[in-house]
């Protein structure tokens, strides 16, 4: 039997949208099979059908040629199907070991038998190169480690069909490389892997075959070695996509944002998470803060945008001191922010798309009268943004933000922030978890803002993005700026060394402040 899993003619509908329209997917034993598509193409929905989270309106699923009925994730587990979700499903205050065995605990006379479980987890982690610390608490370990815990959860349950949903969206370049090795070794052991992604480099690096979906429909299944990245992106988006970023030479103007000796101490002790950082961003340039996740980028952005406190130092915008201003005051003075975590800091998930688009404008005189919101002008404005930024949703402005795909949620945030016509745009991981079509769109938006003379501070973990978009790169390591580089004068490998702390530039106080 060639196929371990066959999903035949699967149709899944939600109110107002056909998420999967008659899709067929066949997975061979021991292969890494990529599922490629834009956000909202129906990839996660199809995998949720296979994992028993949704029931399809039409179609059948076969395992080893036999029709199976998967009513819930327990049925999927019994059939050896496991899934690592894009947003991990871990209990944060439990240990690694407790998370791995949760739901399949071994007990004796009502007591947990942890020793056998511990031995098995250690054996599995050694066999597959997934080294984890069994007694570490989940909230204390890195995102890359949390992902290993999710993979071990599947292996502990003897799953032989492994679904990875956008597994690299939150990983550093080094962790991504590690994960690719792990996936290859799992396939070599006879596991069959379904890999949802929209990153073409990763598909080329690790997948044997690739099935492409577009707007809920099946486009084709191809052998990865037979196609180019350009061909894959065209199948996915339905048009030619320019994977190269074209920029004109920047016309740099006056300083917009100036940061001097900024420090942020951690809450529990006086460790400096941001350590006397000084830099500036001028009109017409994209300055990128590059670094491995967890080196103080988040705390720095929180301090700049007013979402977090600072311990010392100053921040000024167009010469005016905003160190102690509220978030709204900073917005009004010309700061916009595309946050790293779109669910936590970017959107009110229970609000509608229209309400989210208005969050920074509803209080201005154009949109309210004597304390009452003028809904006619609000609708006109939000509909304009939806069409201008091609934000796709089932019910237009009335759609709940939570129900939208990640890419469309991100477009909504970008529409709201860029339309403020800010002096400085702080964009943190603006393309995290997005597909090539959306990435191309967002990159073009950022370049367009820069060419209009705006100052842009980009914070990114994607090295390609850093190299392609930046006019200047500031590398952050353990809360310090360790290098100020020009992308055309540095290689990706060298940048990686600065990011890992193996190399530093001596940045004098003078040059950091000029």
UniProtKB/TrEMBL annotation:
<protein>
    <submittedName>
        <fullName>Xylose import ATP-binding protein XylG</fullName>
    </submittedName>
</protein>
<dbReference type="InterPro" id="IPR050107">
    <property type="entry name" value="ABC_carbohydrate_import_ATPase"/>
</dbReference>
<feature type="domain" description="ABC transporter">
    <location>
        <begin position="257"/>
        <end position="503"/>
    </location>
</feature>
<dbReference type="InterPro" id="IPR003593">
    <property type="entry name" value="AAA+_ATPase"/>
</dbReference>
<dbReference type="GO" id="GO:0005524">
    <property type="term" value="F:ATP binding"/>
</dbReference>
<keyword id="KW-0067">ATP-binding</keyword>
<dbReference type="InterPro" id="IPR027417">
    <property type="entry name" value="P-loop_NTPase"/>
</dbReference>
<dbReference type="InterPro" id="IPR003439">
    <property type="entry name" value="ABC_transporter-like_ATP-bd"/>
</dbReference>
<feature type="domain" description="ABC transporter">
    <location>
        <begin position="5"/>
        <end position="240"/>
    </location>
</feature>
<dbReference type="InterPro" id="IPR017871">
    <property type="entry name" value="ABC_transporter-like_CS"/>
</dbReference>
<keyword id="KW-0547">Nucleotide-binding</keyword>
<dbReference type="Pfam" id="PF00005">
    <property type="entry name" value="ABC_tran"/>
</dbReference>
């Amino acid at each position: 039997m060639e196929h371990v899993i066959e999903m035949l003619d699967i149709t899944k509908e939600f109110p107002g949208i056909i998420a999967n329209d008659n899709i067929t997917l066949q997975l061979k034993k021991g292969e890494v099979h990529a599922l490629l598509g834009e956000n909202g193409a129906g990839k996660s929905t199809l995998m949720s059908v296979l994992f028993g989270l949704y029931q399809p309106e039409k179609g059948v699923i076969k395992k080893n040629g036999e029709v199976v009925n998967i009513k819930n994730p327990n049925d999927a587990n019994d059939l050896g199907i496991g899934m690592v979700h894009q947003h991990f499903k871990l209990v944060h205050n439990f240990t690694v070991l407790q998370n791995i065995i949760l739901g399949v605990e071994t007990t004796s006379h009502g007591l947990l038998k942890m020793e056998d479980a511990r031995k098995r987890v250690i054996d599995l982690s050694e066999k597959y190169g997934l080294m984890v610390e069994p007694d570490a608490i989940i909230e204390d370990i890195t995102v890359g480690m949390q992902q290993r815990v999710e993979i071990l959860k599947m292996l502990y349950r003897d799953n032989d069909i492994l679904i990875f949903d956008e597994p690299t969206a939150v990983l550093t370049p080094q962790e991504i490389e590690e994960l690719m090795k792990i996936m290859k070794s799992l396939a070599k052991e006879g596991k069959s892997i379904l890999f949802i992604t929209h990153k073409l480099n990763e598909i080329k690096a690790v997948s044997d075959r690739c099935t492409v979906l577009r707007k809920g429909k099946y486009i084709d299944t191809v052998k990865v070695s037979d196609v180019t990245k350009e061909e894959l992106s065209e199948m996915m988006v339905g048009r030619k996509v320019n994977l190269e970023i074209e920029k004109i030479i920047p016309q740099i103007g006056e300083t917009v944002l100036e940061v001097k000796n900024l420090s942020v101490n951690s809450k529990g002790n006086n460790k400096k998470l941001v350590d006397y950082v000084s830099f500036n961003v001028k009109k017409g340039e994209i300055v990128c803060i590059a670094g491995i996740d967890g080196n103080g980028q988040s705390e720095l952005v929180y301090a700049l945008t007013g979402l977090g406190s600072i311990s010392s130092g100053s921040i000024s915008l167009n010469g005016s001191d905003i160190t102690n201003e509220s978030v709204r005051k900073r917005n009004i003075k010309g700061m916009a922010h595309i946050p790293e975590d779109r669910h936590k800091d970017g959107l009110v998930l229970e609000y509608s798309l229209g309400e989210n688009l208005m969050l920074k404008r509803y209080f201005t005189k154009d949109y309210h009268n004597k304390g009452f919101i003028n809904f006619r002008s609000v609708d006109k404005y939000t509909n304009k943004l939806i069409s201008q930024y091609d934000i796709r949703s089932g019910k237009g402005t009335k759609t709940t933000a939570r129900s939208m795909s990640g890419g469309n949620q991100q477009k909504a945030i970008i529409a709201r922030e860029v339309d403020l016509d800010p002096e400085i745009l702080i964009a943190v991981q603006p393309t995290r978890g997005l597909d090539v079509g959306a990435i191309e769109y967002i990159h073009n938006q950022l370049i367009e803002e820069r060419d209009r003379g705006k100052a842009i501070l980009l914070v990114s973990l994607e090295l390609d993005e850093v190299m392609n978009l930046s006019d200047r790169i500031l590398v952050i390591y353990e809360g310090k700026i360790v290098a100020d580089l020009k992308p055309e004068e540095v290689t990706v490998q060298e940048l990686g060394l600065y990011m890992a702390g193996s190399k530093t530039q001596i940045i004098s106080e003078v040059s950091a402040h000029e």
